[in-house]
Write a sequence for this structure.
């Protein structure tokens, strides 16, 4: 089967909207089957073993199956800004990022374009792509789709956003977030195995799970961290993030999210992580919670 037939009755993400994206119908991700990306460039603001000294070769795809109400990238995730390209151009972008010195190819919000991505990776590898490939996603993934990526992805960088189904329903309209994230993460760790680094400390293989602590939601964060550590221990790294930034207009519908995270809230979650023995992790402080860390989606590199 041509992998692009997967767009004909789309079930690439857990929304399973089954629209025919090949015929121009728009899925829950906001996209048809036309590949669209908003930025491709070296990115310095990922976790240290991912960005390293040279930067991570990020490709930001337009659209998103989740569309969280607090999304910092809503310009491309909900408003679908970007430029239409094809798989051949995407393969060229991968090679261009490699030539710039990127430590990896970082696919940001890629789920709804998996058929194009596998096609582009096949082509790029034939033409000399040797970098590790990183799958940077929201955690709300189909394990079946992830199985299509076996042999393509070296590093998984998923979010694990919520434990509570009520919070997931309120902020991302997916009450089944936790269950789907658990299934997806199990598949990711199976594929990558334990973390592997080169002599410079750059990650070559493994899984890093991100959790963004939201204002007023430390109890939920603690449950997420507890699950990750008890289930996976040193098989993964946990990145506990403080960079929540209130975006314009959120106060009207979600006033509880109209402020930044306090130091007390963040430290509470970090203390819990330390108390239960989390040692393989990353933290954020201070300037990470700034709009200046949100990339400009000006079609650079696309």
């Amino acid at each position: 089967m041509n992998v692009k037939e997967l767009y004909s009755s789309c079930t690439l993400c857990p929304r399973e909207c089954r629209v025919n994206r090949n015929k121009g119908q728009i899925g829950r991700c906001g996209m048809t089957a036309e590949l669209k990306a908003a930025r491709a460039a070296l990115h310095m603001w990922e976790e240290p073993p991912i960005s390293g000294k040279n930067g991570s070769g990020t490709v930001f795809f337009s659209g998103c199956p989740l569309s969280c109400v607090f999304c910092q990238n809503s310009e491309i995730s909900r408003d679908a800004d970007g430029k239409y390209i094809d798989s051949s151009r995407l393969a060229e972008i991968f090679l261009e990022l490699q030539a710039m010195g990127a430590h990896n190819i970082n696919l940001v919000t890629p789920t709804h374009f998996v058929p194009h991505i596998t096609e582009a990776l096949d082509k790029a590898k034939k033409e000399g792509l040797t970098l590790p490939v990183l799958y940077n996603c929201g955690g709300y993934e189909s394990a079946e789709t992830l199985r299509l990526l076996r042999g393509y992805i070296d590093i998984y960088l998923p979010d694990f956003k919520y434990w509570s189904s009520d919070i997931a329903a309120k902020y991302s309209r997916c009450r089944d977030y936790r269950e789907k994230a658990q299934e997806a993460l199990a598949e990711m760790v199976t594929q990558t195995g334990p973390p592997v680094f080169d002599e410079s400390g750059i990650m070559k293989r493994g899984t890093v799970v991100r959790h963004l602590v939201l204002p007023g939601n430390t109890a939920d964060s603690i449950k997420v961290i507890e699950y990750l550590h008890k289930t996976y221990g040193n098989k993964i790294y946990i990145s506990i993030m403080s960079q929540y930034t209130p975006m314009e207009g959120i106060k009207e519908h979600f006033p509880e999210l109209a402020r930044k995270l306090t130091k007390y809230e963040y430290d509470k979650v970090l203390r819990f992580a330390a108390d239960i023995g989390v040692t393989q992790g990353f933290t954020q402080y201070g300037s990470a919670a700034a709009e200046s860390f949100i990339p400009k989606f000006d079609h650079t590199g696309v």
Summary: The two ends are 29 Å apart (CA to CA). The first strand starts at residue 36 and ends at 43.
